[in-house]
Amino acid sequence: xxxxRDFWRRYRRKTSAVIxxxxxxxxxxxxxxGPWFIPGDPLDMVTQPFLWPGTDIEFPLGSDVLGRDILTxxxxxxxxxxxIGFSATIAAxxxxxxxxxxxxxxxxxxxxxxxRVTEIFQTVPTFLLAVVLVAIFKPSLSTIVLAISAVxxxxxxxxxxxxxxxxxxxxxxxxCVVIGMGExxxxxxxxxxxxxxxxxxxxxxxxxxxxxxxxxxxxxxxxDPNLMSWGTMIGIGREAMRTAWYMSAxxxxxxxxxxxxxxxxxxxxxDALNPRLKNR
Amino acid sequence: MATExxxxxxxxxxxxxxxxxxxxxxxxxxxxxxxxxxxxxxxILHLAPGDAIDVLAGEAGGGTPEYVEQLRHAYGLDQPIYxxxxxxxxxxAQLNFGFSFRNNMSVVDLIMSRLPAxxxxxxxxxxxxxxLGVLLGVFAARRVNSFAxxxxxxxxxxxxxxxxxxxxxxxxxxxxxxxxxxxxxxMYTIAANYDWFEATLDVGRHLVLPACSLALxxxxxxxxxxxxxxxxxxxxxxxxxxxxxxxSQRRIAFRHVLPNAILPMVTMLGLQxxxxxxxxxxxxxxxxxxxxxxxxxxxxLQRDHNLLIGILLxxxxxVIVANLxxxxxxxxxxxxxxxA
Lengths: 280, 340
Known about the structure:
- The complex is a heterodimer.
- Helices cover about 70% and strands about 0% of the residues of chain A.
- Chain A is mainly alpha-helical.
- The mean pLDDT of chain A is about 85.
- Chain B has 14 helices and two strands, in the order αααααββααααααααα.
- In chain B, strands 1-2 form a two-stranded antiparallel sheet.
- Chain B is mostly helical.
- The interface between A and B is large, with 44 and 51 residues.
């Protein structure tokens, strides 16, 4: 608990990090409790189309080209964005940590093979690969999560590998080997916990970029057809942009706030977890 | 001893020879990566539910099972998987990525016809984002923790968090619809009778909004990198020496810090090419820019998987070439790097 208090003391020193955390908590609250306050299906047509924001108390943010409520869409869309952002990051962490840990711990040919594969995935333009994967495997929540994690894991793998390469030479690891500890245990119980700080920092930025990627995919019409996501809403609003630009503008602001919050939190975590670099 | 005196000691290879050897090795690596990417594409196509024949037969309004089998045989899809893979690789080596039935053109011709527009857009964005990034980064680093520095940081953070396609849409609303200043669709004015100068100007005007939208995110990346890179170099001993010599702040910043701080920027530039291509898909879709990205969007709508995979492969090849060029530029900029 002392460690946490110490961490919090360093985290809150940076105003932008605290602002980011507040924004993130707000978005998370909207995602968790919002649908309870604003029930209803965002895909339902509930009022007249092209209703401007502020003209009808019942639909404060107006309606889209088919008369679907925009506020409902944004509130329910926060669930989609956060769900995809976090699950894609967790999946990418699963692949990236495994690949990086194996490559960094065992070195030799395992390292060579895994790093070649990583390099290939880093060469292919990531967003284009995500587009191809989702388009070919048909858009759905799971294919989107898989596609995003398939293009983001290499960064984690490289990070974890570098950490493992340096940590495995330390004395505490050598003493584990001497007392005959199993390799799985050394990897997961001894070395991995020591590379958590950089992994945590990178994860928050990865959630942000996963949300951006998802919005781009669904803007291109590659979103889950049964869900209303922010990117989908921007895509729908695009058809009526000349007359009713608010339809695209509002969900875009929601993305901007969420991604900004995650990036600010990421920076704050970085400063709090790596005190040496606080002046950068 | 005698033999040693006959054969001259292996002198240090000339710089030129080393560079050639380095180039050959890097080209070999690049070729291997490309082959691996072709294999990856083959795997993706084969993991996909249904094969090309299902799509073809579906488009033709279905067909008898015998006809479908006949088609499978004609396209070699009844062969064992490794035979198919070798065929795919051989075809790829001959730049044969199939035929886009929707566009009635071979995939390679289609890509080649769209490549110049994308290259123009990407070049403009790179120039814009790199220049602005360097300028803003240097400006911020020289006044670290001042109001201007913080303002630039906030700006960079906002650009970092803005979906670029959304920014493009909003730019169209403002500059095209409301202010009527700049065109927001296509690459040139259709049916205009321009001479070459007016035509260039016309493309330039069409280029402004897409290039800015695409540059925004990368500008933020370069600004942040340039700032931290400058600050790191400011902390080095030789800068203290320069200060002790009594050099002006300006001279230190531009002659001593900047040339060294720009090195990581070159690496970043190479790494960003892939992201730039991905962004181009979105920006070209928003602005109806007739490049590879727009082609990819059309391929999604038309479920033209051959074309989509072809674009992915070309994009990857572009990234490989860009990385090669960056490495060479880097070796040229920083003589300390051993190329051999």
